[in-house]
Design goal:
Helix content is 22%, strand content 38%. The protein is globular, with a radius of gyration of 14 Å. The protein has 152 residues and is α+β, with helices and mostly antiparallel strands. It has one domain (2-140). A hairpin with a 2-residue loop joins strand 3 and strand 4. The longest helix is centred in the last third of the chain and has 13 residues, at 118-130. The protein has helices at residues 16-21, 59-66, 91-96, 118-130; strands at 2-8, 30-33, 37-42, 45-49, 55-58, 70-80, 99-106, 110-115, 134-140.
Length: 152
Amino acid sequence: MRRGLSFTIPNQYGQFLQVILSPIPLDQYRWKVVDEESYIVKDGQLDRLLFLDSTVIDGRQLNELITQQHYLIFVDIKAFHPNVSTEIETYEDFLRSTCEFALIVTDSQDVTIYCKDQQMLGSLYQNAILHGFEDIAYITSNNDSRTHLSCW
């Protein structure tokens, strides 16, 4: 069974979160941001943290933030429908939770996505191809080496 996908994005400034999340109806979820380190870019320089604290925001707020140019270093964003549930440490926690989607970025370019909706997962895969991301692969129970669903 497909758990998610992984791919590599360019290590540069951009609007990568907006691009990656474009197949997802952001407004349908509550988004939990945990301990990330990514920055808004202003006048070609890193300005301030993209997300000020670990927080829960709605889809409209998330969309406003990710439409700004940003630089990703570490990102841990999870989508919940309808309510945010407890901490998610492992894939098994993810399956038992109300979390529908997890996006993890490490080292500015390594993207891992877990998604319960197989149709949405297919759309995310096609979106990654469309935008020319590299090393695109489905994550399955046979090749999933991640022990924790976080960027740290």
